[in-house]
UniProtKB/TrEMBL annotation:
The lineage of its organism: Eukaryota, Viridiplantae, Streptophyta, Embryophyta, Tracheophyta. GO terms for biological process: phosphate ion transport. One of its GO terms (cellular component) is membrane. This is Phosphate transporter 1. Keywords: Membrane, Phosphate transport, Symport, Transmembrane, Transmembrane helix, Transport. Its main location: membrane.
């Protein structure tokens, strides 16, 4: 294999797991912590925003965000994320992973702080400001997807690469937990100091004026992890694979990797030139489609289908909690109490359903493999959603709320010990170095397109809490998961192999070597390059 011939790649593939690998997981993972916190904490504050800015005394009910406003507030960050993924993913391949890695963090920190500010007092001004900054927040978040996945895959050794990339993504689970936890703590603190009566007793005073600070504080705290990791992210060197294979500087790659990893590397400048000459085809060329077309269709479709279900679940759980009996009806509580109960329910579901799934993937991905984890995950999600959809009338009865909670939690568990993790890992491994970041970005953007269907489409079925509509939503999601199960057959297993072996770059290198050698050496070269 060529990776055995080029010292930099060989050294990275076979390096023992070291402290720097752990550091890289934390640095890259903090971006995902911030991503998840920012994207999901909006679920805990959206009901509060409705009560603060959209109360209409004529309805006799607490204020609620109109459907169109709710969809914009929640969905606009997803639109930003999709565009950010494509933009930064492309730049990651053109300019280098490191050059654009810090920009995404600055954008996230700045926009998270600005999300808590308002230019004006009217509902229109407040929501307009919020949507504007959440779009750009999403844009920064989008950049983190392809860059973090690519950087981690290119730093890791081949034995633990899947676990490392999954561990970076698992920080999303920690971010979701903190989104619930921080919202819960801050709303509880304000509740203990300024708690008002229930809406039933005092419709106007049930919305505490101080609650206007709560949602702002929760959103602004999203900047903290981004600020804390900026310095460390700037100190990371460019990945050895990018420096050697794209910039063609094996000497610099050897020096950079030698500084951060305890490995001995020799610069193979001539071999790098040979390697690149066999892999010069461009993205979307006929050669690219012949080699990687099936995989790109596989990674884009599975991520698209997964995110329809995953984001629908996360963004609509606030509407399903009252049905499950985890939160009280809005009329029986004050605005801050409602936010506290929603946050608490979200925290519990995340802690026992969402969070363990991520780390099960980290623990088992190198044993079971990406393919089977994704296949079983899609299948089990489909089964549990069909059960919830068909038996919804039975499950929504207060006597069965724990059965409902268990089934709902299991769909989250198998999403994360399943396709939510593997759809992130596979695009970082299946494609060649020169287009890896862009292909990951295309796959992730396809996922965000699915998330937007969840935010703008599926969520409309759950906003009013109607039983027939929620049943319909669950059946639709079960069907999309079943489709994901079948599209998984387009991707292949990647565990235990070097990135160059998986992407076929080794083969291209072998052909270039053979073309430049005497015929009697072809057979020997073929054995060396293809194993």
């Amino acid at each position: 294999m060529a990776s055995n011939s080029i010292s930099v790649l060989n050294a990275l593939d076979n390096a023992r797991t070291q402290w720097y690998h752990v550091t890289a997981i934390v640095i890259a993972g903090m971006g995902f912590f911030t991503d998840a916190y920012d994207l999901f904490c909006i679920s805990t504050v959206s009901k509060l925003l409705g009560r603060l800015y959209y109360y209409d005394p004529t309805t006799g009910k607490p204020g609620k965000l109109p459907h169109s406003v709710n969809n914009m507030v929640i969905g606009v960050a997803l639109v930003g994320t999709l565009t950010g993924q494509l933009f930064f993913g492309y730049l990651g391949d053109k300019l280098g992973r490191k050059k654009v890695y810090g920009v995404t963090l600055i954008l996230m920190a700045l926009c998270a702080i600005c999300s808590g500010l308002s230019f004006g007092y009217s509902p229109k001004a407040v929501m307009g400001t919020l949507c504007f900054f959440r779009f750009w927040l999403g844009f920064g978040i989008g950049g983190d997807y392809p860059l973090s996945a690519t950087i981690m895959s290119e730093y890791a050794n081949k034995k633990t690469r899947g676990a490392f990339i999954a561990a970076v993504f698992a920080m999303q689970g920690v971010g979701i937990i903190f989104a619930g936890l921080v919202s819960m703590i801050i709303s509880r603190l304000f509740l203990s100091m300024y708690g008002g009566p229930s809406f039933k007793n005092e419709p106007v005073f049930s919305t505490e004026p101080e609650a206007d600070y709560v949602w702002r504080i929760v959103l602004m705290l999203g900047a903290l992890p981004a600020i804390l990791t900026f310095y460390w992210r700037m100190k990371m060197p460019e990945t050895g694979r990018y420096t050697a294979l794209i910039e063609g500087n094996a000497k610099q790659a050897a020096a950079d990797m030698g500084q951060v990893l305890d490995i001995e590397i020799h610069a193979d400048q001539e071999k790098v030139a040979q390697f690149n000459s066999g892999n010069e085809y461009k993205l979307f060329s006929s050669e690219f489609f012949a080699r990687h077309g099936k995989h790109l269709i596989g990674t884009t479709t599975t991520w698209f289908l997964l995110d329809i279900a995953f984001y629908s679940q996360n963004l609509t759980q606030k509407d399903i909690f009252p049905v499950m009996g985890l939160t009280q009806d809005a009329v029986n509580v004050s605005a801050l109490r409602e936010m506290f109960e929603t946050s608490r329910a979200m925290f519990v579901i995340a802690l026992f359903g969402t969070f363990p799934g991520y780390w099960f993937t980290v623990g088992f991905i190198e044993k079971i493999g990406r393919f089977y984890i994704q296949l079983v995950g899609f299948f089990m999600m489909s089964v549990f959603m069909f059960i919830i959809g068909i038996k919804y009338d039975y499950l929504k009865n207060k006597d069965h709320k724990w059965t409902f909670a268990a089934l709902y939690g299991l769909t989250f568990f198998f999403a994360n010990f399943g396709p939510n993790s593997t759809t992130f890992v596979l695009p970082a491994e299946l494609f060649p170095t020169r287009v890896r970041s862009t292909c990951h970005a295309l796959s992730a953007a396809s996922g965000k397109a699915g998330a937007m269907i969840g935010a703008f489409g599926i969520q409309n079925y759950t906003l009013d809490g109607k039983v027939s509509q929620i049943k319909k939503a669950m059946i639709i999601l079960a069907v999309t998961n079943l489709m994901g199960f079948f599209f998984t057959f387009l991707v292949s297993e990647t565990k235990g192999r070097s990135l160059e072996e998986i992407s076929g770059e080794d083969a291209g290198y072998g052909e270039a070597q053979v073309a430049g050698r005497p015929q009697e050496n072809w057979e020997e070269d073929s054995r060396n390059n293809y194993g």
